[in-house]
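go over this:
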Amino acid sequence: MSFPRNYSGMDLSQTVKLNTSDEGEKRTKKERQEHARPPSQVTRDDQNVPLIQALNTRPTLAIFGIFLVVFVPLSLFLDSYVAEATHSFAIFLVGSYLVWSSYFAFHFFLLKHSSSYGRIPIDKQFYVLSNFIKSALLLSYSPLAAKMLYDVIIYDNWNVVRIWNLGCLYAIPDFVSLFLVDRMAKTTVAHHVCVCIFMCISLNNSYASDGICQSIVIYAIWSDFSYLVNLLLASRFMEIDGRLSMYLSVLAGIIYLVCCGINWTWQVQYIWKLLQIPGLWSVYVYVPMLAVIVRDDVVLLALNLTV
């Protein structure tokens, strides 16, 4: 069977093949262009909206919603039932298990609902989670830390049980991340180890006289107020709007700079006071360990100022 010829002298069968080939080439070219674009610029054909907004906004908002619904009321629960509990180490063990479990719960949720999280390198996924979880926990601790700071500075009231319990709560995210987060920076690992050691030291101190434990408490309180920094560290691996990332970076940088400035100023004058006490050898051990934490804070502060 022969096909009629068109005006160019070509068989219609050849014309059909060429048209089909052209359409296939256009589709292939379009697909290549879609894959070549950054994920934040890929669009959905049906709604013509950025894919990152269509796929990642809802799970991201869901995570933040969980933070608000769970962790903020958690602050009231901690203040009413946990801060004055008499078994501090039990709080540490139970809290560590709950935080450890939350890693896997959030990991499963984000893998299922967030495409951007799935594109993060596997060895960085738990790093992102650790910073999300830590920022939420520090946020929930902040009201308790602010109240403690007020009592200590204004009334010189060192509530020992509350200090022990909040110290255990503060150390939990650092302790858990040591086992679940791969390839952490050495400065961060050293920071987390020192925090856990300081928790153990605090649990064996009565705060009846001036010593390094008072310095540990003040440093932990001011560090707690800079929870936004951990959120920024996590957001570096997520595909969020550039303007939002800039605002978050500026705000986190300002808060972190102010907290570190006040904290370091207080530490210098208090450590100088401790050095005047004869026979207080612990301060000479404390200062190098504190320097490890300060160094990590300087690294994070520099990172915030350059993001």
User: Anything to note?
Assistant: Residues 122-155 form the longest helix (34 residues). Residues 2-10, 12-55 have pLDDT under 50 and may be disordered. The two ends are 69 Å apart (CA to CA).
